[in-house]
Amino acid sequence: MNKSENIQKDVQYMLIIDDFCPVPEVFYARILHQVEEITHVMRSSKSYTLERLCGEEFWSTLSPAERKTAGRCMKIIVKRKQLPLIPDPDRCQHEYPKRYCLK
User: Distance between CA 30 and CA 62 in Å, rounded?
Assistant: First the structure.
């Protein structure tokens, strides 16, 4: 294997999200999958943080930078309507951590 092939093997596909922040496509897919797994047991009257949606075990494996990136991913997941979630309408849009509820 030559040097060019090694470089290509290590390159990850990147998604560019709203604030021009590059996110590895694999990471975006992991966040989407984690949240998707919990949506069927969510209660419509309750709101959830991303940490709760992802689960403590998964969340604890993320670095602080990855947690911020996960939040950016979630923003796009909601904006693209990939899951039946919306930001909690009873919370200020600038309040952190963000909370999400079922549509």
Answer: 12
- Rounded Cα–Cα distance for residues 58 and 71 (Å): 14
Whether the CB-CB separation of 71 and 59 falls below 8 Å is answered with no
The 3-state DSSP class for residue 16 equals: strand
Listed in sequence order, the residues at least 6 apart from 42 whose beta carbon sits closer than 8 Å to its beta carbon are 48, 101, 102
Tell me the per-residue pLDDT of 34-63, one tens digit each, with 9 for 90 and over.
999 999 999 988 999 999 999 999 999 999
Instruction: For residue 57, give Cα distances in angstroms to 3, 48, 53, 101.
Output: 38, 16, 11, 21
Answer yes or no: pTM beyond 0.70: yes
Residue 31's nearest CA partner among 79, 92, 75 is 75
Structure tokens at 25: 């496509």
Chain segment 81-91, per-residue pLDDT in tens: 999 999 998 88
